[in-house]
Amino acid sequence: MPDFVDTVVLKNGNRKMKINGSGIAALACLLLSGVVHAQKFEGLAKTPQLGWNSWNKFGCDVSEQLIRETADAMVASGMKDAGYLYVNIDDCWHGERDARGFIHPNQERFPSGMKALADYVHSKGLKLGIYSDAGWKTCGGKPGSRGYEYQDALTYAEWGIDYLKYDWCNTEGLKAEGAYLTMREALRKAGRPVLFSLCEWGDNKPWDWGKNVGHSWRTTGDIHPCFDCVEDHGTWKSWGVTYILDMQEGLRVHAGPDHWNDMDMLEVGNGMSVEEDRAHFTIWAMMNSPLIAGNDLRTMSKDTTAILTRKPVIALNQDPLGVQAFRHARRDGLEYWFKPLEHGAWALMVLNRNAEARKAGFDWKTEQVRDELSKREAAFGNTRYRLVDLWSGRSLGNTSKPLAAQVSAHGVLLLQLSAMQ
Ligand code: GLA
Questions:
Q1: Span from the CA of 78 to the centroid of ligand 1 (angstroms)
Q2: pLDDT < 50: residue spans in the chain
Q3: Residue 193: CB within 6 Å of ligand 1?
Q4: Of the residues 91, 162, 167, 319, which is catalytic?
């Protein structure tokens, strides 16, 4: 092929590379093979991710000091020991793009730079997450990644970022799947393993296409720190705990190891009652949602710490089977949710949606608890199960007698059922 046909000049930093026709064919093959074979970084969320995020409590008021102190508090509070790993900076960390298009953090808020901050977080045995948006601007009006995906992914890799939450504001005219795939490709090319958290609010059914794109996808709009209220912001609404739960209808079939339904960040410690916080945390654990704390870890109360670090409850969320809970029955404002666990065990959550305490009753012998998704059956007729209350740690006997227990207002009873030999 003569050299003058199809010759292009590629700019690579300050170097210019001349590529002729056969070079173009080779490059096309390379890119094509990249497209065909590229995939997300597998295995980063075999169980739902555990961490913290700045948004719910701090909004745009983020700084390197807050992130360092939060990393310290994550260790000191016992959260790291309970499995929490990611310290995530949400919106508004951004400064401007420079003349070459590279993004920089806000210099007043992050004077030491992101690399130094990542080094600090890593020195604590934790990982650092960051936030961007598929559109022109983030929801907070900062520079989005649209048109800069590869450059931003490279920058995050250079900084040592381990987690990217990718939002969906200001994306008019974009197709969600394509926009998220572009960033997945960019992260992959940048080479540093990054947990990719899709924050698209469920608008374009991310459960239908997100499995090979990211490790979790938001299923709803934003959470509001209340049990069963809706907060109307005019053009959008944010949702209390029970509303978000109800929006999960039909979604459990889409989730599993490395691809989770994300019910949004936790509001534990942000103003609900202790019973409500416990119910909120239990629901998120049962539903295999990522558990991303959203409160001030530096000043949290003993009750809040006890909820966030309750290992037997976290263990349900982290159960290797990765099967999301399902609602078995609803009576009298009480809901009975079951979650299959490894080794033939089960978890049962009785959720009291009423504003007053209620008696839960469950006659094991007459209930047919079967899960079509995991093909598991709790054969209470043939198998006796030992019952342990996972919040108090107390034994509640076994399934030979019907369950009768008081459940507090807006509270839960959470039991582990283990087959007796
Ligand atoms: C959206 C997201 C929130 C948060 C804000 C930041 O509303 O859903 O979780 O990231 O943007 O501006």
A1: 27
A2: 1-24, 26-27, 29-36
A3: no
A4: 167
What is the pLDDT at residue 368?
Answer: 93
Q: Which tens digits make up the pLDDT trace of 96-140?
A: 999 999 999 999 999 999 999 999 999 999 999 999 999 999 999
269 torsion bin: left (phi>0), alpha (psi -120 to 50), beta (else): left
Asked whether 93 lines ligand 1 (CB < 6 A), one says no
Question: To test the ligand 1 pocket, which listed residue (198, 222, 267, 292) has its Cβ within 8 A of the most ligand atoms?
Answer: 222
- φ/ψ region of 106 (left if φ > 0, alpha if ψ in -120 to 50, else beta) reads beta
- Given the residues 91, 152, 162, 222, select the one marked as catalytic: 222
Residue 131 near residue 93, CB atoms below 8 Å: yes
Question: Strands across the sheet with 326-331, in order?
Answer: 326-331, 334-340, 346-352, 412-419, 385-389, 395-398
Exposure b/e, 359-370, CB count within 10 A at least 16 = b? ebebebeebebe
What's the CA-to-centroid distance between 397 and ligand 1, angstroms? Answer: 45
